[in-house]
Amino acid sequence: MVLLGVLVTLLYPLIFISQPMSTGVVVVVQTGSGILTALVALVAVVTGTIALLKRGGASKTLAAAGTALGGAAIVQLLAGLVQSGLFQLVV
User: What DSSP string describes 2-58?
Assistant: First the structure.
């Protein structure tokens, strides 16, 4: 998820150089990034939860870390959506 954020951030200058006054491309890149982040976060939460609920086996530390990081990404995505909605109401 962090790598995706870095790649999207590095894409912005290229977008602005190739499409100087176009916000449509930026919106498409941001939307695609948000959808991909949400999918990866959901997979992390689901697989981490399954591993945590499974009896026996190896240490649950990595499963707990994956679940926590996936949950944090979902909360961040939801906060971004709420912020975007509030901006649309205000502006």
Answer: HHHHHHHHHHHHHHHHHSTT--HHHHHHHHHHHHHHHHHHHHHHHHHHHHHHS-SSS
